[in-house]
């Protein structure tokens, strides 16, 4: 099995959100939780606990978002100028 993008899921105080997922996405989250558990030696991870780390990883690796965020922090008006 290839290395997954997520590592062990840490406990953190969550903020509650309510959302609906397509059934296929939920099935994939269940499968990912099982694969992650097998890779890390943890118990299977519930889909709800996977969503936040997956979104965080996605945003951390999105270059366009990173440029926009840096531009906003630096007071630069255009995200393409960073």
Can you put this structure into words, describing what you see?
The N and C termini lie far apart (38 Å). The chain has helices spanning 23-40, 47-60, 63-74. It has a domain at 30-55. The mean pLDDT is 84. It is globular, with a radius of gyration of 16 Å. With 82 residues, it is an all-alpha fold. Helix 1 packs across helix 2.
The tally of beta strands, per DSSP, is: 0
Distance between the termini: 38 Å
Low confidence ranges: none
**Main structural class:** mainly alpha
CA gyration radius, whole angstroms: 16 Å
User: What can be said about the biggest beta sheet?
Assistant: none
Shape: globular
Count, helices: 3
Overall pLDDT metric: 84
Order of helices and strands: HHH
State the share of residues found in helices, binned by percent.
40-55%
Beta-strand percent range: under 5%
Summarize the structure.
The chain is mostly helical and 82 residues long. It has helices spanning 23-40, 47-60, 63-74.
List keywords for this structure.
82 residues; 3 helices; globular
Describe the secondary structure blueprint for this structure.
Layout: H1 23-40, H2 47-60, H3 63-74
């Amino acid at each position: 099995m290839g290395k997954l993008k997520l590592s062990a899921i840490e406990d953190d105080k969550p903020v509650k959100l309510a959302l609906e997922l397509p059934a296929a996405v939920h099935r994939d989250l269940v499968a990912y939780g099982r694969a992650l558990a097998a890779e890390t030696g943890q118990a299977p991870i519930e889909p709800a606990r996977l969503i936040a780390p997956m979104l965080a990883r996605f945003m951390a690796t999105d270059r366009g978002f990173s440029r926009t965020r840096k531009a906003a922090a630096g007071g630069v008006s255009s995200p393409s100028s960073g």
